[in-house]
Specification:
Elements lengths: L1 H8 L11 H7 L33 E6 L10 E6 L23 H8 L6 H13 L4 H7 L10 H19 L13 H15 L3 H54 L31 H4 L8 H14 L9 H44 L19 E3 L8 E3 L16
Antiparallel strand pairs: 1-2, 3-4
Helix pairs in contact: 6-7, 8-11, 10-11
Length: 416
């Protein structure tokens, strides 16, 4: 009796079904530790969820015959299908799309469709194949009876078919209606296939030559853009020099004739690349005049050295006394000198290019190869030769610069 009481007093916790032993050991141990304060749901989460099947009845399926409306031989087939769909049409028959090939009568053929190069039997054979193979002209050409009829190409078959379709559409159309008549250009199609065949039959040497010519064309376009850019920069420098000269003359004549001052909007715009653009100290506070004489950081070192050398040749002090008038005159002088330096550089580049063109012309004249522009003969550096057109009669020879002369070391553009 004592043993039974003791066994009834001891509490035993049974491991839930589906829980692993290691997980259960974390919740309860043999030392009779207290269970966790928060309840844990052991009925779900540790077992696989069963599939919940519906309570509806399964729709019955039936092994039944069917016919495909796309087939005209009346073939009978069998497949599994729902019993509720018995007697309905085959669902995939709607994907059977056929091309509407026009039909002509004997009278229409004799009046409108007659052609000396085609007989009526050959035309009927063409339209019969067009209906059978849905205008797949490659297949039609393969199935065409070349023994009974004249041998035709795919372009000939397509041209004859679409010519008849256009004729029938014009005849049967009501007056005043806009027609979309299909047009087939057989000559263009033949030329396209011929060009494609030539492209496919190229040799490796021809492919390499084409790639080389494409690279040369890119070089020519690049040098042409560079030459146009240098021309624009030179024109800007010339315009800036003329504008600066006119402004100086107007400033000198203004106090004598007492001309009314022009508004700021009427002043001609000077390009930013002309001379040196000194910063304006308009902020509040005290500034030194020597700060206005300091060159901006945008001026390159080579240009600064050239400017100092020109000032030394003119006998001008590099650091004069910074009075108001001297600061203004000194800055204007340096701006003019920089503009003069840029003009000299542009002039030297033009002279060098002109000399190179003259040498090329003389070399071609000695070789006797003066003629129309050609891509034959390339320089060792990968540049194409200069083409020259020879004028007739007393007209002057025109020199065409295809590539442009290479740049001299001093002609490389630097930031001002």
């Amino acid at each position: 009796q004592k043993k039974s009481k003791k066994s009834s007093e001891t509490l035993t916790f049974k491991r839930p079904e589906g829980m692993h032993r290691e997980v259960y050991a974390l919740l309860y141990s043999d030392k009779k530790d207290a269970p966790p304060l928060l309840p844990s749901d052991t009925t779900q989460g540790y077992r696989t969820v069963k599939a919940k099947l519906g309570s509806k009845k399964v729709r019955p399926w039936k092994w039944m015959p069917f016919t495909n409306p796309a087939r005209k031989d009346g073939a009978m087939f069998y497949h599994w299908r729902r019993a509720a769909e018995e007697g309905k049409d085959y669902p995939f028959a709607r994907f059977n799309k056929t091309v509407q090939v026009p039909v002509y009568s004997e009278q229409e053929y004799q009046m409108y469709l007659h052609d000396d190069a085609w007989t009526k039997a050959e035309t009927d054979h063409l339209f019969d194949l067009a209906r059978r193979f849905d205008l797949r002209f490659v297949v039609i050409h393969d199935r065409y009876d070349h023994q009974q009829f004249k041998k035709r190409s795919v372009e000939d078959l397509k041209e004859r078919y679409y010519h008849i379709c256009a004729k029938l559409a014009n005849i049967r159309a009501a007056p005043g209606t806009d027609l979309k008549i299909p047009v087939f250009d057989a000559g263009h199609e033949r030329r396209r296939k011929e060009q494609l065949e030539r492209l496919y039959n190229r040799t490796p040497e021809q492919v390499a030559e084409e790639e080389y010519l494409i690279q040369e064309l890119r070089k020519i376009e690049t040098r042409k853009k560079e030459r146009e850019k240098r021309t624009q920069d030179l024109q800007k420098l010339i315009t800036a020099a003329d504008t600066t000269t006119e402004q100086r003359r107007a400033e000198r004549k203004a106090p004598k004739k007492k001309l009314p001052q022009k508004k700021e909007t009427e002043k001609p715009a000077v390009p930013e690349t002309a001379g040196i653009k000194f910063p304006d100290f308009k902020s509040a506070g005290v500034t030194l005049r020597s700060q206005r004489m300091k060159l901006p950081s945008s001026v390159g070192q080579k240009k600064i050295k050239a400017l100092e050398q020109m000032l030394m040749e003119l006998g001008v002090d590099l650091n004069p006394m910074p009075t108001e008038e001297i600061v203004q005159m000194f800055n204007e002088l340096r701006s003019d000198l920089v503009l003069l330096y840029e003009l000299k550089q542009a002039f030297a580049n033009c002279e060098y290019e002109l000399q190179m063109l003259r040498h090329r012309y003389e070399a071609l004249a000695k070789a006797g190869s003066i003629g129309p522009l050609s891509m034959e003969g390339a320089h060792p550096d990968g540049q194409t030769g200069l083409g020259i057109e020879e004028g007739k009669g007393d007209t002057k020879d025109q020199i065409i610069d295809v590539v442009g002369a290479p740049l001299t070391p001093n002609s490389v553009r630097r930031k001002v």
